Amino acid sequence: MKNTTLCYVEQNGKYLMLHRVKKQNDLNEGKWIGVGGKFEEGESPDDCLLREVKEETGLSLTDYRLRGIVTFLSQRWESEYMFLYTATGFTGELSACDEGNLEWVDIDKIESLPLWEGDKIFLRLLREDAPLFSLKLSYDREDNLISAVLDGKNLL
């Protein structure tokens, strides 16, 4: 089970989104996601978040908060615990990302993009400013969402 972070950087009613179109054998290929990545040895969730956002965007976060912990289970990919963040403060200039194309997207238009089905659930929770949550998402071999459990309650 790997540990990862994912962050939605917010500015002027938009989230900074990453369209994953540059990496080979990318489980997120073609999808739009936030920015983040895998923990390195000895990192806390915050350490990983700050490093990954800087590496992928060139931005240094100054105001961020943990919003939820998402457990991803898949019959096809390695399972992971993802620490989900939003950020509203940063310094620096946006730079190119070697994993895909970065774009500021209106928050109310994000669901029309190619997303993981489970991402729509936690994006809704972020929009509703839900308190810290635990979400467990299970996918089958074809990457179809087969189970979603929010704070112990089945959603599907």
Explain the overall architecture.
The protein has helices spanning 45-57, 117-127, and strands spanning 2-11, 14-19, 32-33, 35-38, 60-74, 80-91, 101-106, 133-139, 145-150, 153-154. By secondary structure, the chain is an alpha+beta fold. It has a single domain (2-154), classed as Alpha-Beta Complex (Nucleoside Triphosphate Pyrophosphohydrolase), CATH 3.90.79.10. Strands 1, 2, 3, 4, 5, 6, 7, 8, 9 and 10 form a 10-stranded mixed β-sheet that branches. Strand 5 (60-74) and strand 6 form a beta hairpin. The longest helix is centred in the N-terminal third of the chain and has 13 residues, at 45-57. The mean pLDDT is 94.
Can you describe this structure in just a few lines?
The protein has 156 residues and is of the alpha+beta class.
Stretches where pLDDT is under 50 for at least 5 consecutive residues are none
Provide the β-strand percentage band. Answer: 35-45%
What is the N-to-C order of secondary-structure elements (H for helix, E for strand)? Answer: EEEEHEEEHEEE
Report the structural category.
Answer: alpha+beta
Quote the distance from N terminus to C terminus: 24 Å
Q: What's the CATH C level?
A: Alpha Beta
CATH A-level architecture: Alpha-Beta Complex
